[in-house]
Each structure stands twice: as C-alpha cells, then as structure tokens.
Predict the structure.
Amino acid sequence: MKKLVLLLSLVVLSFVFVGCGETTTEATTAASTTEAATTTEATTTEATTAEADLTYEIALVTDVGNIDDKSFNEGAWNGVVQYATDNDISYTYYRPTEDSDAARVESIDAAIAAGAKVVVCPGYLFETAVYEAQAAHPTIAFLLLDGEPHTADYVTYETKENTHNILYQEEQAGFLAGYAAVMDGYRELGFMGGMAVPAVIRFGYGYVQGADYAADELGLTAGDVNIKFGYADAFWASPELETKMDLWYSGGTEVVFAAGGGLYLSVVAAAENTTDGKVIGVDVDQVAESDRIITSAMKGLTSSVYGSLSRFYDNSMTWQALYAGKTSVLGAITGGIGLPTADASWGFDTFTVADYDAIFALLVDGTVVVGTAIDAAPTVSLVTVEYDQ
Amino acid sequence: MLKDIKSPQVKKKRVISDKSLTFISALFAILAGLVMSFILLYILEATKAESNYALPVQVFNNFLTYAFKDTRSIIKVLYNAAPLILVGLSVGFAFKAGLFNIGATGQYTVAAFFSLVAVILWGFPWWAAILVAMITGGLWGFVPGYFKAKFNINEVITTIMLNWVALYFTKLLLYNLPELRTLPPGNRTDPIAYHNPTGLLPDLGLKELTGSSFINIGIIIAIVVAIIIYIVMNKTTFGFEIKACGHNKDASIYAGIKAKRTIVLTMIISGALAGIAGAVSFLAGTIQFTTDSVLLPMGFNGIPVALLAFSNPLGIVVSGVFIGYLYVGGQAFEGVYSSEVTNIILSVIIYFSAFALIVSQMIRRKLSNGNDDSGTGKGNIFKRIKEKTVSLFKKKEDVVENDEEEVTN
Amino acid sequence: MENYIIEMENIRKEFPGVVANDNITLRLKKGEIHALLGENGAGKSTLMSVLFGLYVPEKGVIKKNGEVVNIANPNAANALGIGMVHQHFKLVEVFTVLENIILGAEPTKNGFLTTKEARDKVVNLSEKFNLKVDVDAVIEDISVGMQQRVEILKMLYRNNEVLIFDEPTAVLTPQEIDELMKIMKNLIKEDKSILFISHKLNEIMSVCNRVSVLRKGKYIGTVDVKDTTTSKLSEMMVGRHVEGVKLSDVKKKGKVVLDVDNITVISKSHKNNAVNNVSFQVHEGEILGIAGIEGNGQTELVYGITGLEKISEGRVLLDGQDLTKKSIRERNLMGMSHIPEDRHKHGLVLDYNLANNLALKKYFQEGFHKRGFINKSRVIEHAEKLIEDFDIRSGKGATTPARSMSGGNQQKAIIAREIDCESKLLVAVQPTRGLDVGAIENIHRTLIAQRDNDKAILMISLELDEILDISDRILVMYNGEIVAELDPKKTSANEIGLYMVGSKVQDKAPKKEVKANAKRH
C-alpha cells in the first residue's frame, strides 16, 4: 500500500515538474495545447501562485452545442476571442447545465456575477432567456444572434435598449450556394438541414431558389435539376445520418448542402465513401474540414460579432442608438453572408469568382430578391424538390 | 435493517457495524474521487503555458462551496437531486433483486414524454400525469422483466435495446403530434406553463418568493417515494422475496418463491420509479422534450447514485442530493475552465463514488476476524486477488533487499 | 540424513483472519507415497497450493533435493518437476486427450503445431505406466476415471517427478479407486514421488508409505503407515476418539409416503433423458439411499420430485396426493422437505442472516407477517428456538450472516429449517458433503432420529459409506435408471460399485461402459 502511494505521488510530482519545466522555458507545445477557452488573462508568463482574478468582461453563453461545433457557436466564439485578444479584454464562455431557458438564464446570471459587461448569446434558443435577462440586468449589454427576444408563448416581442439582435439573411447564402452548384454543372442536389428551425429553413429554401434561378439562366428544362430535401433532427453527426447520406449519394446525388452544426461530419463521411460526392458547408468556411467541401454558405458570424463588440466598446460600452433595442438584418448588402472566394476555398470548376461577384451584385442591388417565407416551400419552376416526410 | 439485532453481547463484539462501514466506505470513495479530481485539475493547470497554481485551489474551493452560495443554488441542488434520487431508486431497487436495469433511461424517456402528453394534450393535472408516467415507465420495465422471466434473456441487453426503442418511439410520436410542439422551430414540446399550468409541479408559491424557476415539490416526491421503497424493501414479505431473489435466485426458487413473478414485478416497479423521475424532471416546466436523437443521460446517472448508496433507499436520497450538489458545484468551473474540464472533474468524482462497494469490501477484509470459511464466490476471488498483489509486492521487496545486499557486499 | 526430494519447512500461510497453515513441516522421500491427512479445512489444500506455487507463504522455506527453491507460480513448480492433479480436473472439455496433454507445452515447428512426436511420447508413457487412454477421444465423452488418467499423463508428459494428487478418489467408483492405487504403485516404481491428499483412512492404509496429519492448520505428526491403525489415524485427524453411527434395528415398514411413478426428466446437458422411467417408493420410518456416480440422473431425479424441474412423464405422489403439477411451495406445504445437494446454491441465501434463512420456508405463513409486513421479532424468536434445538453455532446468533458460518453449521441450519417444517418426507441430498467427521456424525444421528420418528427419508449420496451405514434400503442409479435394489446388510461397496458403473444390472443383460468408448463427433 505504501508503495502504491509512493508511486502515485511520484507520478503526480513528475507531472508537476514537467509542467513547471514547460512553463519556465515557455515551450510552444504547451502553449498550443492550452485551451483557448480558458485564458485566465494572466499577464505574467511564468507560473504564479497569485490569487487568480476570476472575472471576465466579455462572456459568451452557448446554446446546446459547444464552442467547437465548427459552426454557429464556434463562429460567434471566434469573434469574441479575436476582439478580446486584440483589445486585451478578459473573456470566457459558459455552457448551460441543461437545455432549458431556466438554465440559460442561470448561465447568463453566472456570467454577469463573474463580471461580464457584455453577454453574447448565439442562437434562437436564447430568445426567451434574453427576454428575461435584459430586464433583470438593465446595465449589462446583450448581443443576440439569430433571434429576437420574446416571451415563451411568443406573444410579446420586446428588445430593450441594452440588447442588440442580429439576424442573417440565410436565404441569400443558401441562394448563392444553390446557384453556384447548378451553374458549375451539378444537377442532382441535396439539402440536409439540422433541425427545421427558421435559420436552417431559410438556408434550405434559399438553396432551392438559387438552383431554380440558375436552371432558368442556363435554359434547362423542368426536371433537369433535382433536389432531395431533408432534416437530420440534430445538429450533430450520427451513424443513421451517414447511412442516409450513403443512400443519397449512391442514388445519384452529387452534392449535399450540410446545413446544421456538426452534422456535416456524417455528410462528409458519406461523400468520402463515394468517388466524387461533394459537400457544401455552412455558417463558416469549412473547406479545411475536407477536400470534398466545394464551398460554404457563410454567415458572417465572426465578423459581425467582432464588429458589434468594437462598436459597443467604441461607444463607451453602450449600444449606439442605431443598434440599441434594434435588430440588424445582415445580408449581401452588409456583407453578412456569402461564399468564400479565396483560392483554397473555391471548389468550383466552371463557375468562377467573377460569375459569383456578378450574382452577388444582383443580390446587393435588389435585382434578385430571395423569398424569405419559411412557412411554405418556395415556388419553383424548373427544379424538382423531393421533400422528406 | 439492523434493528433486528437483539442480543446485546453481540453488539459489543462488533468492531464496526455494517451501517457505519458502508457510510465510511462511501465517504472514502468520495474523498478519493475529490483528491483524484483535484490532482487532475492541478495537472491540467501545470500543462498550461501560464500556470497559476493558486487557480485550481481557488476554483476547487469555489466548486465545493458553490452550492451554498445562495438559496437559488441550494434550490438547484434539490432540483437536480429529485430525479437523480428517483432514478437511483429505480436502479437500486432492481439491483436488490439482482437485476441490472440499465434501461432506466428508456423508461424515464417514455414516461417523461407521456407525462407531457397527459399534461399538454389531455389537460391532466400534475399528479395524474405522474400516474401516467408510472404506468408507461412500468410498462417499459415490464417488457425486459417478462423476457427475463419467461425466456431468460439478459435484462441488460433488452433494457439497452428498449432505450433506443423509447428514444425513437417518443421522437416519432412527437413528430406526429404537432399540437405538442412549440410554434416555429417545432423541435421541442410546448412549455407547460403556457398550456396547462395545473400540469406544473406545484412550487407552493416559492417560485415567486425565491425567484428561482427550479423550485418545486419534486424533492418531496422523491423523498416520500424513497421512504415507501425503504419500507417495502425492509419490512414486507414482498421485499423479503425480492432480496432473496437478488441474493440467490436458485435458493429462492428452492424455497418456493415465485422468482419469475418477482422478477417481472421488480422490473415493473423499477420502471415506474424511473417513470416518476421522468415526470418530475419534465413537469418542472424548465426543460422541454426535444426531438434530439440522444439518450437522456439522467437515466444513467441513477447507476452511480445507487452504487454510492449501496442501493439502500434512504442512502439513495443522500447520494442523490450529493450528486445534485456536485452538478451545481460544477458550475464553478464554468468560465474559468472549459466545460470539458467540468465534465471530467464531475465524472472522476462520480466514478470513484461507484467504488464504494470495493472500498467496503477492502475494509471488511481488513477487519474480518476469520470465521469466513464459506470459500465460494466473491470472497474467494478477492482473497486471491489480494493474495496475488501481496505476493507481488513481497517479491519486489525481496528483490530490493537483495540488491541492497549486493551493493553493501 | 535421509534422501528427501521435497522438504517444506515451517510453512506459515495466513488468510485475512485465518491461519491456514501454522508452522507446518512436511518431508517427502524420493520414491514414496506420502499421504497428507486431515479434515476439510485442516489446511491440506493450502499447503499443496503453496508447494504448487499458487500461494506464497508468509514464512518457511521449500527445498528440493536439499536446495532452497522459490516457487512463485505453477510454472515455476512445473519447471522443478512438481505436478498436481486437482480434485476438479483442469481439462478443456471439447479438446481431445492428446490436445489436453500437450496444452501449454505444445511442440511447435516454425510456429506450427507438430503432434506426431507428442503423440508417440504420450502413447509410450501410457503403455509404460499402464494408463489406458484413447488419445483421440474428446474429454467430454470419456469417463471420469479416464479423465483422471489424462491428468496423470499431463504430469508425466512434463517429466514431473513429484506428483500431487488432491483427493483423487472422491470422484471415483470403488473399481476405479483400485485401478488408481495400482497406477500409483507403478509410478513410484519408476522413481516418481507422490503426495496423496485424502481423508479416507482405508485408502491411505492400503497404498501409502507414510502419512502426515494436519488438524485446523496445525501439524500433528508424521507416522509410518505400517506402524499405525485407522483408529489411531482417525484420532490424530479429529483430535478425539470417533465412533461410527449405526442404524438401530429395522422397524416394520410403514405405509407408503412418497410414490415415484415412472417418471422421466429431460436432461439439459445431453439429448438423452436424465431420468428415464424411474419408479420407487419410500415408506414411513425408512431411509431409502440412492447410490450412484455423479451425473447419472440423481440430481435431476431430486429436481423432478421436489419441483425444481418439470418431469416430462410419470407422476409423483405424496401420501397418495398427486403433486406432479404442484408448485414448489405447494409441495413444501403438502409435507415435503428438501435438504439440497448444493447448500450454497439452493440451501441458503448466503447474504441473509441466519434468522432470515431459517424463515425462508415460513415467512409467508401466519404469525410471521401481518398484512404483508414481516414480524421481525417472530422471525428472531423462531430462529433462536432452532439454534437452541439444533445446536447451530454462529458468531452473532440469529443475526449472523449465513456466509460467515462454517459449512457444518450452515448444513445444520438447513436441516433444522427442513425438519422444523415437520414434513412427512425428507429428501436429503448429499447431506454431509464437505463436512468434517464430527458434523457428519451429528447429521447422521439427526436423520436416524427422524426415521425413528416415522418420517420417510430419501437420501441421495455419492459417499458409498454413508449409503451403507444409514440406509434401510439401497437403490443404485446408473444412466438415469434404477439398476439395482439392495439390502445394505447383504451387499458390499464392491457390489454397489459394479452396479454404479453399469457393468452389472439386476435382471437385465449387462451393459458395456458406453461412455468410455464413445466416438468423437
């Protein structure tokens, strides 16, 4: 028994020493493995034993996912990290203990108790929580992405002065993705959304409209372009989804728009089971995740969070009149959406960046208007859409 | 349990009573978990570029005291504890009968769903919804119980499978019951409060008073149920039969106990308990039932709760509150450490808690004064393991001594 | 200085709370058969396990040919030429004899198994020592005696020179025992040395050179067999003078209590019926003993009678009432008590305390509960009465966990519970299995008292001595059938043995030993 204890303490000690060694020599490996999330904002570079300051000025509360979802939460989180590190402001994130409004409110409260001055809330799930929190904490600023505060019964919508909402015109991003795919020669398309929530539906319906628009422009006949349209009912990967995607790809689908958090993993895996199945990413530029990703229908999450935070701090930590209690709808005009045009992210063969700029300009000047309705499928003339269920 | 000890001279002989032994070993297990998790936290800190060794101490301290921070935290502990206790009772009750109900999750899910159906669609009050949950949970427990009794199919397999059946069955129903779902996204059930306030567990007016939406009578229900189970287990012929079956099924059959009937009944009751847990969780009006394709973790949390309490119903109340306390404490890590760290720390403590049984066996071996010659089963294995380990160390010592001798020579 | 091949000096082995071996010294001469005698729990197996490397002793040294050796594990023991035949054979049932013999010492060439040489070696050994085996037979098809020969060959194949036999005769018929004795004598002629563990005095007297006696973990002494007698040995073993239990005169047969009418029980382990068309009757005031080798249907017969298993054909009548379709509890209430074969599997809930175990067949009866709530004080009272009446000894009285009681007292508790039911019929299966001499005596007396009290007793035992000693009538079971009915006064162990292996059948043509010749499938 004694030996065991001795052994154990040796192991522990060795860890401690290794740790010290790394910190004193400022080993880069250690730095890279450090959780980006958990910066303690310590300004010293050596190991210290000083009383730690456990207050964080910018806080992000996640909805049900985590900050590494390669998608929504991560996009917003990156905006927080960038702005905070650029300006040397303390920041952190919180994950609610359960998927409920009460828990989200609790996390917001915890963030504020830990010194948060501005709380970033990504996702429509925060609508009710922010509705409550903005009233309970009038001196704290809230940035709500993808939603507008309302009561749980959807009767009262109210955005107070300390809150700023950002909505994205996902339908435009979807439109561009669908347009680009068809213009590039794809005819068998697929759309796999996470859950039938408004943002995802807009992505999907925009995608359908974009494909239809391209078909018309190319002078195709009805039925030339087919779209399979479905929801995974989850924002993460699953073997069932991969099987379903296998069926799609083996059934002739050439490219699938994976619109929903981590579920792209299943879609990419299925695509990689085929010789040339392709995937369209979502929210952020996901090209780094797989060479099968030809493009991504991006929302400018990172940039809009970064921009909002900088405007907030520049205006002595209050929302400017333009934003206070207001909702910004970010689309092509404000650069809130788009496809990545960097060479590395451009997976198209015949569809060029110039073509993209052209259609983007049409969206900006209003020549092309993408329907925003989500309660009914968009009317299309040329593409055939096969809806699940 | 130990009330039946009559002879006084017997008591004097005991070095340590079974009850305090279990208590001590549970404490040991928890302590080991805390120490281990702290060491882990320390190591994590050490691997950082900018280690601040005060941080883990500070955060760990916060972790332990977080639950006593204010009334709302204490309320949250009880809120967490209520379903944990009930699920723990479900698992523990089955344990006592020698069954491993790993399907508490499925029973919990189905029952939770139907309690919501009862409240939202049928306008039932909360207590009627709990009854519905008991029936559906019991039904979900009956199936593996029946298969076990009739065809001797291992309940672990059937309950695991039924977990998935429960998950997709409720999902399917939720899709096909649009009246149950919220307005636009429609991926979760409608909040009960705006639908049928009588369906919410009563909060006795304390919600207003405390300002916490986590307060309700769930914890009272859990404690009452625990007491009932305790009485059934320890005072009735039915409990006698269940425990006999659990300890030794063959002997129970030999003694004329209808073991098959007992197994089925046990599983029904176990399922019903998980069912109450489901109702208590969801009728709190906080979480909503979603269409997510993941098994609800609450059902599995019952396993460590039961293990830590040696399946003793009253012990489960304590261990349920303890684990509820840990979860609340875990919030102290939020912000400072990543949420993964929180989960690791909690898991380590809970993991070690589940070792309470082994700790008690170790203590028992140490204390046993040698009239154990039954020679079969576990005892023997433990003896052998100990034998082996002891000899292992012995050998090493010998080697070391020899080495020293050589050096001195 | 004598020529000792193995010397175990001052061995001390402790288990938590128990000193299993307390300062024991054992010296084995080269070329002798040395018996290790002691009751169950005397420390024989522990001592041998130390020698075989399964346990490491706290104190003491082991010498081989005068040199101190360190035996850390069975492999080390093997390397030193020490082999052991365990009481429960360590054979792979689905392997052939040859495969089992070479298992763990497989001859290989370039990583492939080469059995040719091994086969020759095994065949040679089996001829040299007269160990008849069919090297290609599968273990599960061959008789217990042959399995034991396989175990012996295993040791010889590994060139072991010190052979430990752990209670080798427990599983054998009288004929097989004679055969084994011959084999052992052959072995010492070839310079092997044998340690023979037993508690059967006559065997020791007939084959061994010297005998060392252990009692309660302590070393009592070593004597030359030629200088001693069975009664002296038995006194050394038990620590006091022992007298056997004998039946009083046969009383006049009473009326039939148990009537087993042509019953058949299907086997769970093989295709044939475990019990095939068996009929017999047990009368008031009679002990009917059923003898047979393990696995010939006795267990299933008992299961059929007591209701633990369904019978596929026939009827069982108790006092004229048909109970074929009755549940176990109904049978108990109709007047059937059952001392089960395996007291740990069936007889006791080991994790229950003594009081609860004693109430196992009473708790549901009036007085023991009130509207489903158990009357604990009544349970304790009941237990205390039985503890008193049957002299059940335990550390904490009624609240002692059954697990912590000694085997003899566990068995006493079961017998107390069963007799307390005041049943007309007592089915006693191996009532003295694994118990020491004192306990056996005690239990035999109790059974006889029951018989004298006009109860009907059906006793099934593998111990021929027990059957011969206390039965009024003997049935022999072989292959699921009753092959003989004998009068204990007019028969002998040898005669019963012939019936037990099926080489003799009353009123029927003799059958061959099918099992041994069974072909591989």
Q: What stands out?
A: The longest strand of chain A covers residues 293-299.
